[in-house]
From TrEMBL:
Claim: Cell cycle is one of the keywords in the record: yes
Gene (name only): Dana\GF19121
Database matches in PANTHER family: ENHANCER OF RUDIMENTARY ERH (PTHR12373), ENHANCER OF RUDIMENTARY HOMOLOG (PTHR12373:SF0)
Organism listed in the record: Drosophila ananassae (Fruit fly)
Gene Ontology CC, one term: nucleus
Record's protein name: Protein enhancer of rudimentary
Physiological role: Acts as an enhancer of the rudimentary gene. Has a role in pyrimidine biosynthesis and the cell cycle.
PROSITE patterns recorded: ER
Biological process per Gene Ontology, one example term: pyrimidine nucleotide biosynthetic process
Family, similarity comment: Belongs to the E(R) family.
Amino acid sequence: MSHTILLVQPGTRPETRTYCDYESVNECMEGVCKIYEEHLKRRNPNTPTITYDISQLFDFIDTLMDISCMVYQKSTNTYAPYNKDWIKEKIYVLLRQAAFSPNA
């Protein structure tokens, strides 16, 4: 488990910047999914169930002005930066594991 900080800037203005921290990379990737789900709920307030596929999630990530992660590296006691493509790869792996787990 590596402490992970998610940095998000949805719009062009610097005031739209925000961050969240998580106890692990997987929790952070789940957090990115939740951000998208909240976005969908705001856009579709009268829809009781929201569904989406991974390509829609990735399109949403691509529309963000910036999104990146800082992941704690115990060996060097520092945080390493990771970009959008890395985030999308980690989300893909996480969702694929969830889809193929016996409890899914």
